[in-house]
Amino acid sequence: MVKMALLIGVSQYGAGFNQLPAAAKDVAAMQRVWQHPDMGDFDEVIPLIDPEPQEMGIAIENLFGDRNRDDLLLLYFSGHGVKDESGTLYLATRATRKNERGGLIRSTAIAARFVQEIMSYSRARRQAVILDCCFSGAFAEGLLAKDDSSVDIRTQLGGEGRVILTSSTSTQYSFAQEGSDLSIYTRFLVEGIETGAADLDEDEVISADELHEYASIRVQKASPAMKPEIYTVKEGYKIILAKVPIGNPNLKYRKEVERYVYRGKISPVGRRILNAKRDSLGLPREEATVIEAEVLKPYREYKKKVHEYEQALREAIEHEYPLSDYIRGELQDLQKVLGLRDEDIAPIEMRILTQIDSVFAFLDSDSSPTQLARVALDAQLGKLTSELDYEEKKEEKKGVDYTRLQEFLAAGEWQKADRETEAVMLKVSGREQEGWLTESDMEMFPCQDLRTIDELWVKYSKGRFGFSVQKRIWMEIENSIQDDKVDIWKYFGDKVGWRVNDYWVGYRNLRFSLDAPEGHLPGWVFVSGFVAGGFFGGGLFYRVEACDEIAV
């Protein structure tokens, strides 16, 4: 039995096609896992970068020709998929061209049916094809699209003893993220093999269907509109593609992390469980942190895309309101290239547009609708700066002196410390004149300053007070109930003693002593939330969580 793989990547294209720099890197990553003795363990792995049509056709023919029945043959392709006028799929080469009418010059590409013919003549009973490709018509700034629609791969590459894995349904909209090393789909295929996480049934080998399921789940967390597909004939889905090192502690910990991640977060209880698992496996904290970051990465990518859409919507509203059909069309295009579904953007639009409508209902003004929309965005949401872009910048403390806060806390003068917390946070945010913070200010508060304030509160209250304590309580409530943020805020108020018998107690009735409920202080933020016109406690606590991740 021989295991052979041909890995084709086409990055360089002529006129009419955008370049795909990730394709060559895709091949290098695939070569790494397939030829590794503890992973793919293939006897021969042949990389082929930017081939001419004849060179590519001969390589495919050599892969499948003159083989034995028990051989395992794998063909991988990363590049542009192109359709002719009849909808037939072609794999583009560096020489692929279009005619004056924009139609494909067929002789410059490799037809899928040619691959099917070669495969059907092969005596090898185990044949696997992995296609990370698409048509070049769907792309936007920051994303390079690699296919579009309606190519029936099942009929064009189907056959006995075969398994075909594709990056999306009918190869539609498979994306390579600009600035990223690998295409999204290939990245998760490699991750599943390298980490062993694709061994879903824990039998120490990775079958084609397991690899597909793992990559599919991870892809859809990062880009929900992408839907990888698997097409098999007979037992093709059970072809063993890779193996997993026995007793790998990193893999065991990774599976535990995936188990305790819910909605892109690790709950406080889950954190305690994972810490115990990490210690029992003897994993260094640094390795555990890297594993957690890998598991959470698709969720963060998805969150970044949602943030990008929200920012675009707000900018569009500030430019004109109501939105014209043209602007709505542009927003739909952005949604498509970000890989977001209607259900991903519906909550954003509902929240923002409902807030604007509420301002219209209460403001009696001669201002234009666009001006009123700007007022609504400024008053209720603050000027938006992407939290994720902000986090990517290296932060420095704002030069605020925390000596007085430390002195008040050390002396147990909790109310003075609370007021000093207010003063320093306003100074850090540059909002001393306004006297309150917007939700946006909270969500982007500098991490180093936030940590300094929190650490002082936690230290001198012996772990009873502080933003991190409040965050833990908030997250426990959020993870246990499915209500909206206002109701969660009420439950939180009950828990920390800011509400008694369904009534908010008010700042003057807060308890400035260690006898107060856990998380009772700092309390000035509680009052500022009402002054600012919204319940942004969650925004602050999410910022605390994000800063924890940055620190890691």
UniProtKB/TrEMBL annotation:
Residues 3-219 form the Peptidase C14 caspase domain. GO terms for molecular function: cysteine-type endopeptidase activity; tetrapyrrole binding. GO terms for biological process: proteolysis. Residues 396-526 form the GUN4-like domain. This is Uncharacterized protein. It comes from Allocoleopsis franciscana PCC 7113.
